[in-house]
Amino acid sequence: MRAAVLKQFATPLELADIPRPAPGPGEVLVRIAASGVNPLDTKIRAGLAAHARAVLPAVLGLDLAGTVVEVGPQVAGFAVGDEVYGLSGGVGGLQGSLAEYAAADARLLAHKPASLTMRQAAALPLSVVTAWEGLVDRARVGAGQKVLVHGGAGGIGHVAVQIARARGAEVFATASAADAETVRQLGATAIDYAGTEVQEYVAAHTGGEGFDIVFDTVGGTVLDNSFAAVRTYTGHVLSALGWGSHSLAPLSFRGATYSGVFTLLPMLTGNGRDHHGEILREAAALADAGLLKPLLDPRRYDLDTVAQAHAAVEDGSAHAKIVVDIGSAAGS
User: What is the per-residue pLDDT for 197?
Assistant: First the structure.
């Protein structure tokens, strides 16, 4: 099968013919239709993501959507011909989705939302699992809460906005002036992060009390701002990028709580993989109910132009999710 292979860090991916895998116990063989490209994929390629534990030579690509063509032993719930999506590889020695086929752990997959194309489905897994683990698993988001999403038009952020709204929360999101309308169309109140100080938007939208949940999808100083924006006593700060050194004093003085989200753990350790499948099933139900839809960059890429897809993510020209078409069934 054809695949884009990383042979050395900080070098371009190389197209190669490699053996087509066979599904082992608990695995299904998926003919891949589309592969989502995340900033993490580009960091892995550059050798800047030691936490992802990529083993060279590697086929990258975290997100996939495709069709089951073979079912290994000890697999229940999937059959040949099923359309599936998932966060199933590209780290920790697991083959990624920039290939024509992948043998994937069935626990990491779910049936593709019927209302979405393969391309749309391939845009969701990493973002939806990260957002769900933070908002639902850690913070128990629900009706009556005010939720602030930092980076509301980003890959994780725009999904987090939709999940929080689907669960009844009132949602606010920081964004650039250029992305404010996108955030509003998702159903959130847009906050111009460049032109508004933390104290100003906390006062304007919460009467100075702070937000019940603050989800940082940006990292760095944005996490520090999150500690200053959360509600006293009952507030909960979440971060998918809490990897730096930060003062906990602002959070501690509020008596609030913090949770880090590290979505790769089940793939790296083998523990908790069933829950990834559960999240994807819940997300599929939301999508089919019209409550969750990814934002896609209109540019089209395939295995021959995957380097351009990575470049579009790295240079900031992508204002929505980049997806690589692997097969003819990728759709619009």
Answer: 95
The more confidently predicted of residues 319 and 133 is: 133
CATH architecture of residue range(s) 127-260: 3-Layer(aba) Sandwich (3.40)
Write the CA distances from 117 to 29, 112, 216, integer angstroms: 20, 9, 29
The amino acid at 278: E
Q: Are 106 and 77 spatial neighbours (Cβ–Cβ below 8 Å)?
A: yes
CA distance 97 to 30: 10
What tokens appear for 48 in the block? Answer: 């800047």
Going from N- to C-terminal start, the domains of the chain cover 2-124+295-325, 127-260
* Average pLDDT of the residues in 89-109: 97
Q: Are 183 and 175 in contact (CB under 8 A)?
A: yes
Say how far apart CA 287 and CA 285 lie, in whole Å: 5
CATH class of 2-124+295-325: alpha beta
Position 84 pLDDT exceeds 80? yes
Task: Give the pLDDT band of residue 329 (cuts 50, 70, 90).
Answer: low
Cα–Cα separations (whole angstroms), residue 206 to 148, 155, 200, 201, 232: 11, 26, 10, 8, 12
d(CA 233, CA 235) in angstroms, rounded, equals 6
Q: What is the pLDDT of residue 331?
A: 60
Q: Where are the alpha helices (DSSP H) in 207-293?
A: 221-229, 249-254, 265-269, 273-288
- Furthest C-alpha separation in the chain: 60
CA separation for the pair 172, 198 (Å, rounded): 13
DSSP single-letter state for residue 50? G
Q: Is the peptide bond before 57 cis (omega within 30 degrees of 0)?
A: yes
Both tokens assigned to 125:
């897994």
**Does pTM surpass 0.85?**
yes
Quote the DSSP letter at residue 134.
I
The mean pLDDT of the chain is 96
- Mean pLDDT for 92-114 is 98
